[in-house]
Design goal:
Elements: H1 9-15, E1 69-78, E2 89-98, E3 109-114, H2 133-143, E4 150-154, H3 168-193, H4 203-208, E5 213-218, H5 220-232, E6 238-242, H6 250-255, E7 264-270, H7 276-288, E8 303-308, H8 315-328
Parallel strand pairs: 3-4, 3-5, 5-6, 6-7, 7-8
Antiparallel strand pairs: 1-2, 2-4
Helix pairs in contact: 3-5
């Protein structure tokens, strides 16, 4: 099985995920994919995250013969800065992925996947008319049994302008507030429209189904992930913050974990990524915190930190880290 060659990295970078910093746009080498799914883990136990990241097979970039479906999903929300006052109504779009063989009589896990800086809701998976290579990757992985069939929701933190994500400071502010839209508008709309594990869309039902919900993102999408952990831990079980290259006031985020420990955070970055030192420092703080337990040292651990040698802050890294996260979430042995 061939894996993505460095020569393809530039194509992947443009087609997949936007980063929140324009620096470090180098591609990175891949390693041969010789392991079976889930074969290598940090330690035996229910929360043993894979010790090494799998490379994406090169053939997964091509369209699948049995593809999933992308849907343009529209929902009502409010302008982010005044959301609580409901001062200005907005109609926003998310791109929803329905897996191959989608069946309305089956209940699905849901993963909310946020884009990075200079991006929008179409950056990651594309559109129904123009799917991205990463959409093809998900199709192949689901069909191969590597990823459990799931619904993926790609929203945007862009507020009143599609250019909002191009401003670093504005994006930080919008992500600090994004939980208002996420919990009150997006999740209820999505999970009323599609068969998820929530029996209804009351807050109580949505919280009861948290084991079947995850959130992740690369770069500025990782900022959104950490803010979701901070403000919406009762609604989500799994978190995938990838290459978060900024400080966030981690003490406030970690405080959310004091009330419960039944979650899993998988932090991933590359050794040549400018975000590496930020994520490394954050992971060390997590090891020192009484609210987090490293899955490498305990079978009941609730976080893992993984790095990819030679990988930088680019689309190839973002795609591969997301692929690995989705391969593991909801796919561990009982």
């Amino acid at each position: 099985m061939k894996t993505i060659r460095p020569a393809l990295a530039a194509v992947v970078m443009l087609a997949v995920l936007a980063a929140c910093n324009p620096a470090s746009q180098d591609s990175a080498p891949s390693t041969p994919d010789t392991r079976t799914p889930g074969a290598t883990a940090a330690k035996t136990g229910s929360n043993a995250a894979p010790a090494e990241l799998e490379a994406i097979p090169q053939e997964y970039l091509a369209p699948s013969g049995a593809p999933g479906t992308l849907v343009e999903f529209h929902y009502d929300t409010y302008e982010a800065m005044t959301h609580e006052q409901q001062a200005q109504k907005l109609n926003k779009r998310a791109i929803v992925y329905l897996p191959p063989g989608y069946d309305e009589d089956q209940r699905y896990n849901v993963f909310y996947l946020m884009h990075g800086g200079w991006g929008n809701e179409t950056t990651t998976l594309g559109t129904p008319a123009a799917p991205s290579p990463f959409k093809n990757v998900i199709d192949h992985a689901v069909n191969a049994g590597e990823i459990a069939p799931l619904i993926i929701v790609c929203p945007t933190y862009n507020n009143t302008s599609p250019e909002d994500s191009a401003s670093f400071s504005l994006a930080l502010d919008l992500n600090e507030r994004y939980h208002n839209e996420l919990l009150n508008d997006l999740i209820p709309a999505v999970e009323a429209a599609y068969p998820t594990h929530a029996g209804n869309t009351t807050p109580e039902a949505l919280m009861a189904a948290r084991d079947h919900r995850g959130f992740g993102g690369f770069s500025m999408g990782a900022v959104a992930t950490w803010r979701t952990f901070q403000h919406a831990l009762d609604y989500f079980r799994y978190f995938l913050p990838m290459s978060c290259g900024t400080t966030l006031g981690d003490d406030r985020i970690f405080a959310a974990a004091e009330a419960r420990s039944d979650f899993f955070v998988w932090v991933i970055t590359g050794t040549d990524d400018f975000a590496y030192s930020y994520d490394q420092n954050r992971a060390e703080q997590m090891r020192q915190s009484p609210s987090f337990t490293d899955a490498d040292t305990s079978s009941t651990g609730n976080f893992a930190f993984r790095t990819k040698e030679g990988y930088a802050h680019d689309g190839l890294a973002a795609m591969e880290y997301t692929y690995n996260g989705l391969r593991w979430f909801w796919n561990q042995p009982e």
